[in-house]
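Continuing the batch. This is chain 6 of the set; chains 1 through 5 are on the previous pages. Same settings as before, nothing changed between runs. Recording input and output for traceability.
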Amino acid sequence: MRILNCDSFQLHEFFETDVPSYAILSHTWGAEEVSFQDIQNGKGESKEGYQKIKYCCEQARKDGIAFA
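Output for chain 6:
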């Protein structure tokens, strides 16, 4: 499983029992969503959908959760 570190915005891969707690963002896809490749390449910030991910991570950190 790959999940996003809310501090570094880097994807981390975890296996089975090693998966930490993480926040879930439920949304519908629009024209300007951030893709896996955008996150990998560090190019997602220019897309509108980035704000949803940023807000999700901000809320996760407030709740003491490091990943989304």
